[in-house]
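Hey, quick one: can you model this chain's 3D structure?
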Amino acid sequence: MADRFGFGRFGAVRGRVRAAVAACAQRRAILAAQDDPAALRTCSFVSLLRTNQAVIAENIEAALAAGDADLASSFVELARKENISLGEELSATG
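Sure thing. Here's the predicted structure for all 94 residues.
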């Protein structure tokens, strides 16, 4: 019944809107940081993580495999701060 009214497409539209809002926020952050090399580097790093979220998960897993729980926790903290989703297993690391 929900599909009859088009509610099934709502989730897809909401996902696209979230992505567009995140992209605009990232562009604003880059413009604001253009005169601050450290801030610009941070913006670029966060942009990389957003476009390839597997990178952060791989680094968390590598840190855990190397026995570096502090580094793994730092990656989890960064993901939470930047609203990058992680699986439940990795989120429990931090």
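One thing worth noting: The two ends are 41 Å apart (CA to CA).
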